[in-house]
Amino acid sequence: MRTKKSNTRPKTPTARVVEKNKPVILITNDDGISAPGIRNLMEAIKDIGKIVVVAPDKPQSGMGHAITIGEPLRLHKTHHFEGIESYSCSGTPVDCVKLAVDKVLHRKPDLCVSGINHGANHSINVIYSGTMSAAVEAAIEDIPSAGFSLLDFSIEADFSGARYFARQIVELMLKTKLGKHTVLNVNIPAQPLELLKGIKLCRQAYAKYQENYVQRNDPHGRQYYWLTGEFQNFDKGKDTDVWALANNYVSVVPVQYDLTHTTYLKQLKATWKK
Amino acid sequence: MRTKKSNTRPKTPTARVVEKNKPVILITNDDGISAPGIRNLMEAIKDIGKIVVVAPDKPQSGMGHAITIGEPLRLHKTHHFEGIESYSCSGTPVDCVKLAVDKVLHRKPDLCVSGINHGANHSINVIYSGTMSAAVEAAIEDIPSAGFSLLDFSIEADFSGARYFARQIVELMLKTKLGKHTVLNVNIPAQPLELLKGIKLCRQAYAKYQENYVQRNDPHGRQYYWLTGEFQNFDKGKDTDVWALANNYVSVVPVQYDLTHTTYLKQLKATWKK
Hints:
By secondary structure, chain A is an alpha/beta fold. The first copy, chain A, is built from 9 helices and 13 strands.
């Protein structure tokens, strides 16, 4: 028993007392722990909660909801961000969330935020996106979450608008105590902050890519293929994320992971009964 | 002009004439082109259509909707299946579908089928599954599709029940001309055919995994982690895939890729307005 001894220990510093009441926020991304986007996200919200970063040790764009099954994972403590506990992980963004909960935090954080992604994750991109899959994984594990993406691939991108709105949305999420399965897909136009008109709640636009693989020969004369494709938006609705972004709004789409197509389920029950 | 000459060429064999009217069916999977499951799927439906196989050259389980962006893809013609055009691809299941449409078929097939997966893809597994993500990718590209999974991981698994129902469902899909965005998630219990009670149209059960990473040290004393986890079903509904499978039904869940959480979108509009 150490009860008595604990009475004589040095007073807990005030900062730690405050920190104990702060929400625990897990940050991850898919561009890797060295990407400017994740630093900007961390900087934007670091005073709001107790921040822990667990992010891939290399770029993991387009990894979707991939998990690492057939090989082990590595997790290394890093010193990327001064004063912030951070780890790099050899796996996918979804692996990062799973490992963070089980082996780093040993608890569920109050919120998980992913990004800020370098590039758009609106419309059908949500399904290929490692950034968004990390957020979806958090929600599966009862952790409200949001993925943030800036419509600018450049390493030199201006994150000021994205930072402003990421902070606003994180504050809103904590304040309004959204359900534990909440996932928000947030995209920010590549515009200076002063041109951004605000947040718009949207649905996912119906769009896709028209693939066009570039075919080349290697120095040994063997063919290989590079994925390229043209984005095609078939959706003229003004309630979509694509419309909102084109009109300088920050788009927010609540995302679900129950993939049952309920309308189609009813139709199929009628059709196949015949 | 070769018009005249063509009149004198040998008569087109009847088989080819028939084949011209047959539907073109693309087969892929996530266990790799050498897995017994894909051979069983091919065998089950090979007389129904003109079959083309494009499948990963190695196991790709748990790859979700990952695509290969940062490196090129290889595609090799193989002779795995006698009399069937087949290719192995260095990428993910989703890459296989994209490359098949753009560079192998040069058209959209009439149907895409994925599997037969070695192991369950019911409930939340749909989101991690390479098998199902290939099927979803096809539907995004306007190709009706289905993913088939047998609840048996064994390389020696008995596919007779799975083969029977895969064929039945493929015939049903072609006959009832389902919409081009149809994706069916089909799971088959690991039971002898005579014990299977038939097809049940279901919704995705609400379930998840409780992660529990196994922590080990490598020979150099450095830690690594293996993903393990316990499946947890929170859903007692009798209209779910988990219930159907436990009761020896083949579960069929229609799947969507519009991830907008419409109910939550309405709630959020009300909450955030305040």
